[in-house]
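Researcher: Please translate sequence to C-alpha cells.
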Amino acid sequence: PEVAASVAGALKGQSEIAIGNVVGSNAFNLLMAGGSVGLLAKVQVPQEGLLPQLLINLVATAVLMLPAILTTPKRELSIRTYQVMGALLVGGYFVGAFWIS
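Model: Translation complete:
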C-alpha cells in the first residue's frame, strides 16, 4: 500500500504525499510493530549487525529528504533529479544488502 500511494501521489504531482507516506510508514513500523514484538517476546539483537543497518538507514533518509530540503515555492526539482535519487536508492539497496550479508 505504501508504494501504491507514493506512486499515485508522484503521478499526480503531489510529492508531499510520498514523503508523508514514507515518514508515516516508518514511524508506524518502528513504534507499533517493533514495540508489539518487544512486548510479546524477548528479542536478541546482534550487536555486529546494528551499525551497518543504522548507517544504511541514515543514508537512505538523507537521500529521501533531499527534495524537501532543495525545493522552495519558487523552484521545483527536475525529473532528472528524481531519477538520480531513485538510482541512488536502488544502488544503495544492493550495496547495503551485499554489505550486511
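Researcher: Any highlights?
Model: The mean pLDDT is 81.
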